[in-house]
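Standup, Tuesday
Yesterday: got the pipeline producing structure tokens again.
Today: sanity-check two examples.
Blockers: none.

Example 1:
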Amino acid sequence: MKNVTLHIIVDPLCGWTYGSVPLITAAENIDGLIVKVHSGGMLTGDNVKPVTPAWREFALKNDSVIAKKTGQVFGSNYTDGLLKTNDIILNSAPAITAILAAQKLGISGGEMLNSIQHAYYAQGKNIMQLHVLTDIALELGLNKALFETHFNALEGDATDQHIAQSRGLLHNIHGQGFPSAAFEFNTGKWQKADIAHYYGKTEQWVTYLQQSVALV
């Protein structure tokens, strides 16, 4: 019986979220732990952002720090390809909708997030495009028509509502950006989980999670 839920608030276009993906994947394999991924919509609405030289410089510096700290790979198709494409508007919403659609079809939020971020950061694919997201879904064994049906149904209001709920959760757990995490115990108690402390330390993270579950 799973008595502990680990809530993780992320964003598909957040490099630190990409750095935490090995931790999220490991968490999903812990006995007695339910993992719920919530997307906070860092670059949505008025906050969508074009890829400019200034943004590219900022991203590359930040990504270099993330790579050193977490071991995650930022591929040349991303660093020297996608980030040099001036007509791209960075928008988290399509990827968030894709995660929600995949969850409806039985894929975990962590698995879809991992696949989307790998496509973006490691392979340099434009994850704002539906056909790219659909290809990712197909690679995970999902049916194209069913995925696109759920995507279309969840696009817009449902995604906006999910983002608003995720931001509310981020506020309630006193999270500081993405990713942030907290345990919810079956007693109703909540406890913040310091996921950032475990970047690049997956084995220690697993031990921490197992100990937290054992306390119940």
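Example 2:
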Amino acid sequence: MNDDSKKIVIAMSGGIDSSVAAFLLKNTGNDCIGITLKLVKNSINDTAEGKTCCSYNDTMDARKVAFKIGIPHYVLNFTDAFETLVIKDFIDKYIYGLTPNPCIECNRHIKFDKFLLRAQQIGYPYIATGHYARIIYNERTGRYNLLKAIDISKDQSYVLYTMTQEQLKHTLFPLGNMNKKEVRALAYDNKLHNSEKPDSQDICFINDNDYAGFIEKHISHMPAQGSFIDNDGRVLGTHKGIHRYTIGQRRGLDICSGRRMYVCSKDSTSNTIVLGTENDLLRKTFEINYINLITTDTIENPMHLFVKTRYSRSAEPATVIQKDTDVISICFDEPQKFICPGQSAVIYDGDSVVGGGIIQ
């Protein structure tokens, strides 16, 4: 090992990104261990190979890559923590009428908390993943900053905004300065067997993207049907359970109307869903809580920044005001669609993640 070498535990999902991350770190002289996180009990996602991650076949892919590049490989069981902190949270929030993002909660509670702690307990100060993002140390502020990836089309900084200063200090993202084409070429040139493996797309514990079916299988009482109503409270029809719908949904409403109708809001207390037109989806202002700030401890004054409200959407200009320790108010310059309670809003200053929180 060279003088700059680090002791690093690499989270290896079996996909191409974490495999190339492991290859790069091993071949720059670091002391590396590959670990696959077992997250889901009973291998409920084994039938979804190529769409999700964390299946038995994915674990075997990770093991083959580790053997190929010459590092030890182990599996760590986090199923109990994942079930409580991610799956149960996902179900509870959907039943309550929210639309959570379980990937963010997995990063918050498992990958950059419990996994990092486990690595440090065995004497490895650093962890690495195949996420597309960058971490830099800002000498002027004395803080670690989380930046967008060079490959904006693959940037994953949105799902990483919960990271603390201590976590950023001990995390490496080797792919942050690469694009996907370069990653695949490197895997192919170095004969990694999974170089053509498709990217995972769905939530790792749900097959075929069937959220409602998964929730219904894991609760004791089926959610009750309720009413679709308009903005004036008039009943338009019957919904099949509040967990089956999300903000902006148009298909599957079974409503006869002369206009296209969309889910605009949900109220779990009255078990009603408000339908409206596409214009009714537009909002300018909302609040977030469960705040995590990265570039600063507090947003002292109103700031004009950029805010992203879904992983797949672009960041849009907005005024950001911190009203309390755990409340930030956001006002977009122009009204935006699909601002969905339970999702995360992430605040950017250029390429840098200022912080974020959960939409209320």
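Quick observation on example 2: The radius of gyration is 22 Å. The longest helix spans residues 102-121.
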